[in-house]
């Protein structure tokens, strides 16, 4: 049971889509590893991450996350869900609420139902939340409303909410896609560092191979819903990366050009 | 297209003709109406100021009916609004609830008030029940629309974090919909206040009772005073509402 996530021969098509978004995907991620997902737009990165978060149904194959087997016809049991944290690409924060409230929202799945409804945090909840805010460098923003924050600050709130969940598996969908290179490095180091400190597994998608190389121990390349390569970072080969993005459609060059 | 336009005009013309011909409209009556209206206005003038006490008493009761009726409507509309929203429940549930609300909206307030007077007797109680019932048809729909109008992403995020449906409603949906709910509730309260002014005419309490009493007993000068009071109240309600709306804009 040392795998944080295991996928076997998995295929999935979004409802109404002509082509499958994931085709015969197999992978296994050991606990504690930091893994990057690379691939051009439409490769299936978001789909794969959403699947591991238990948000997709109707797939074929076998999936288990943190020792719990998923079933294609139902969402995973709610008590399992806090164990997997997700950093959404568009942050998915409650704009009119404060930073503190948003980060506390990450605790809701860990609270007894009545307390979750009232939102009353226990002393332990507050300790975890304060630590998450401090780790993300936004302790001084706690009382600010999210709609008054910059993009980079929101990104940190989104990560803090995920950390407040005390997840054992952290999934992050392009967590640095709209940040400048210095900020991007900072955020990824924050994310992977926080995961390492907490003994959590991290899987993040990115369009930036150099960042993936710096912050992941292992890199998975995807294209057209398939895994093209899956290697330790030290063995990543430049040509394979370049191939991943070659002629992948009209938008394919955008992510890479930003890097090279 | 042109045929459709012609057909529409023919239908409208037909409807007007049918109404004119089949309704007992004796235009001759209009001729004798002039002096009668003058006489009527003459008897209304000057308004009798001695009914001030009745006006204050009636207005206070109208206000209480509107407040309690609105509270009742909010209490009913919260659960019904949730049950009528596609964000919170399955189509098998929100569709019939929406149909029910449409029925409730379709029943005129005055009809509900008359039925309630028959059921619970004269006084403010039937008025309060009628307002609560009638306003729920609209308010629950507004609440459902407010729920469905919020951004979905934070709801999905809280679900992913393991929050249950009510916790999602409280912490992801409510903060987004709160200003809309406040605006809609105030708007509905204004309507409730306006509509409860006339409830007394069917015996359901409030200031309308005095209008009915004075007209029936031919005390037009007193009826005039009450009518003026009602007009002033409507204008005041509107002014307050305009000010409030500015705050929520
Ligand atoms: N809700 C949906 N309905 C139908 N098709 C979808 C849906 N979401 C994604 N797809 C399709 O599934 C495929 C994979 O999409 P996915 O979002 O997983 O790609 P991605 O690798 O995350 O791309 P990007 O880098 O642009 O975020 C694409 O062809 C996309 O058009
Ligand atoms: Mg994506």
Automatic annotation (TrEMBL), chain A:
Pfam families: ABC_tran (PF00005). Residues 5-249 form the ABC transporter domain. Signal peptide: none annotated. The keyword NAD does not apply. Keywords: ATP-binding, Nucleotide-binding. GO terms for cellular component: plasma membrane. GO terms for molecular function: ATP binding; ATP hydrolysis activity; transmembrane transporter activity. InterPro entries: AAA+_ATPase, ABC_transporter-like_ATP-bd, ABC_transporter-like_CS, ABC_transpr_LolD-like, P-loop_NTPase. This is ATP-binding cassette domain-containing protein. SMART domains: AAA.
TrEMBL record, chain B:
Residues 59-241 form the ABC transmembrane type-1 domain. It comes from the Bacteria. GO terms for molecular function: ABC-type phosphonate transporter activity. InterPro entries: MetI-like, MetI-like_sf, PhnE/PtxC. The chain crosses the membrane at residues 65-85, 193-211, 223-244. Keywords: Cell membrane, Membrane, Transmembrane, Transmembrane helix, Transport. GO terms for cellular component: plasma membrane. It holds the Pfam family BPD_transp_1. The keyword Cell membrane applies. Gene3D superfamilies: MetI-like (1.10.3720.10). It is a multi-pass membrane protein. It is found in: Cell membrane. Coiled coil: none annotated. Belongs to the binding-protein-dependent transport system permease family. This is Phosphonate ABC transporter, permease protein PhnE. It comes from Halovulum marinum.
């Amino acid at each position: 049971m040392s795998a944080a996530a295991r996928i076997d021969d998995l295929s999935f098509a979004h409802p109404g889509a002509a082509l499958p978004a994931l085709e015969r995907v197999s992978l296994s991620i050991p606990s504690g590893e930091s893994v990057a997902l690379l691939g051009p737009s439409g490769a299936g990165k978001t789909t794969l991450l959403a699947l591991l978060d238990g948000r997709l149904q109707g797939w074929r194959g076998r999936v288990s996350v943190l020792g719990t087997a998923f079933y294609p016809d139902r969402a995973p049991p709610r008590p399992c869900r806090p164990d997997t944290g997700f950093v959404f690409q568009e942050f998915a924060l409650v704009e009119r609420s404060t930073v503190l409230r948003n980060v506390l929202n990450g605790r809701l799945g860990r609270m007894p139902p009545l307390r979750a409804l009232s939102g009353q945090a226990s002393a332990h909840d507050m300790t975890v939340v304060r630590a998450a805010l401090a780790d993300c460098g936004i302790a001084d923003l706690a009382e600010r409303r999210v709609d008054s924050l910059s993009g980079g600050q929101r990104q940190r709130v989104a990560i803090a909410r995920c950390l407040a969940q005390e997840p054992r598996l952290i999934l992050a969908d392009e967590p640095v896609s709209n940040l400048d290179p210095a900020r991007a490095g900072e955020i990824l180091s924050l994310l992977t560092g926080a995961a390492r400190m907490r003994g959590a597994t991290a899987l993040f998608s990115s369009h930036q191979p150099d960042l993936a190389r710096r912050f992941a121990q292992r890199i998975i390349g995807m294209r057209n819903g398939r895994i093209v390569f899956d290697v330790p970072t030290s063995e990543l080969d430049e040509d394979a990366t370049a191939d991943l993005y070659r002629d992948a459609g009209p938008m394919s060059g955008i992510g890479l050009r930003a890097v090279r | 297209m042109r045929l459709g336009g012609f057909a529409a005009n023919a239908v409208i013309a037909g409807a007007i003709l049918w109404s004119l011909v089949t309704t007992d409209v004796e235009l001759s009556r209009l001729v004798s109406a002039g002096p009668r209206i003058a006489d009527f206005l003459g008897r209304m003038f000057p308004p009798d100021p001695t009914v001030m006490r009745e006006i204050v008493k009636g207005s206070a009761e109208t206000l209480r009916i509107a407040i309690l009726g609105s509270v009742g409507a909010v209490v009913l509309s919260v659960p019904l609004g949730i049950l009528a929203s596609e964000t919170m429940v399955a189509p098998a549930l929100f569709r019939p609830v929406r149909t029910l609300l449409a029925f409730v909206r379709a029943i005129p307030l005055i009809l509900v008030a008359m039925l309630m007077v028959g059921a619970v007797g004269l006084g403010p109680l039937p008025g309060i029940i009628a307002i609560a019932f009638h306003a729920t048809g609209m308010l629950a729909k507004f609440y459902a629309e407010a729920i469905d109008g919020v951004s979905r992403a934070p709801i999905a995020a809280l679900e992913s974090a393991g929050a249950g449906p009510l916790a999602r409603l409280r912490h992801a949906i409510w903060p987004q919909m709160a200003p809309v709910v406040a605006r809609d509730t105030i708007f509905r309260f204004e309507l409730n206040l306006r509509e409860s002014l006339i409830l007394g005419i069917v015996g359901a309490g409030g200031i309308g009772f005095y209008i009915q009493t004075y007209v029936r007993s031919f005390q037009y000068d007193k009826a005039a005073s009450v009518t003026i009071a009602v007009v002033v109240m409507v204008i005041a309600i509107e002014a307050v509402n305009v000010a409030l709306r500015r705050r929520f804009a």
